[in-house]
Design goal:
single chain; 205 residues; alpha+beta; Gyrase A, domain 2; 3 domains; 8 helices
């Protein structure tokens, strides 16, 4: 259940009678930044009032009159110059949670009606250098996106891509043949190979 998408759908229907393209203002329904104003807030009456040449509060009242949200929200409140504040009903939220808990596999979420294909390319470490925590972050984010898209029903083509390695390893091999510190290699091979890579890189530059 996407509450924001549901509210915007209801607002689009209430906005439609206000004229062509008025329904587009439904994107101005957003989560409230301050809980004292409710759970969601619609700021669409102000720009519509300016466009229609009418007081924003009057426009807000007309929107609320045509808004059908009594099944999931307390009665909408008009505040200030024309903000529409919305509070979700505790009972509705409880029912949604109960329905989700009864479906542990999908939590009540239906697959998308029109699956798409996404290419997810992530990580891309330079394998000629030591890896670091940043590579883990990229890999985790990429894998999470891949799993979410699949769960939604989309097809994904994922690739934990290794960065260019031909030139880099050629530079390491050149450094190994000409500038190797055998003692350093025996103490810590990765550090010595990294030093050789950086050294040859400066010579190439």
């Amino acid at each position: 259940m996407n509450i924001l998408a549901l509210l915007r759908e209801r607002f689009a229907a209430a906005l439609a009678p206000l004229g062509p393209e008025a329904a587009d203002a439904a994107v101005l329904v957003l989560p409230s930044q301050d809980p004292k104003f409710g759970d969601y807030q619609a700021n669409c009456a102000m720009p519509l009032g300016k466009r229609l040449g009418r007081p924003p509060r009057e426009v807000a009242q007309e929107i609320v009159s045509g808004l059908k949200v009594d099944d999931l929200c307390e009665p909408p409140e008009i505040a200030g110059p024309g903000f529409i504040n919305l509070r979700l009903k505790d009972g509705w939220l409880s029912r949604q949670l109960a329905a989700a808990s009864a479906d542990p596999e999908r939590l009540g979420l239906e697959p998308v009606a029109r699956p798409r294909t996404f290419v997810v390319d992530y990580s891309a470490p330079n394998v000629a250098k030591p890896m670091h925590v940043g590579h883990i972050r990229s890999t985790v984010i990429g894998d999470a996106l891949n799993r979410v898209l699949k769960f939604l029903g989309h097809m994904t083509i994922s690739d934990n891509h290794l960065g260019d390695w031909g030139t880099q390893f050629g530079m390491i091999i050149y450094g190994y043949k000409h500038f190797l510190d055998q003692a350093a290699l025996e103490r810590h091979a990765v550090e010595e190979l990294s030093r050789l890579y950086k050294l040859v890189h400066t010579l190439v530059d």
